[in-house]
Design goal:
The chain is an all-alpha fold. It has two helices and no strands.
Length: 46
């Protein structure tokens, strides 16, 4: 069985859970998410 996971949905899920647990982290989580998505866009999925 071949399992293929992309990084975007996993990062979104983790960020959503962290925001629910600690809402004060929202700014940092959004910033980190945007940086990761930007780097993946520039360099392509590894």
């Amino acid at each position: 069985m071949n399992l293929h996971l992309s990084i975007g949905p996993i990062v979104s899920l983790v960020a959503g859970i962290l925001i629910l647990i600690m809402p004060r982290l929202l700014n940092y989580i959004v910033a980190i998410y945007l940086i990761i998505i930007g780097l993946l866009g520039l360099f392509g999925p590894m």
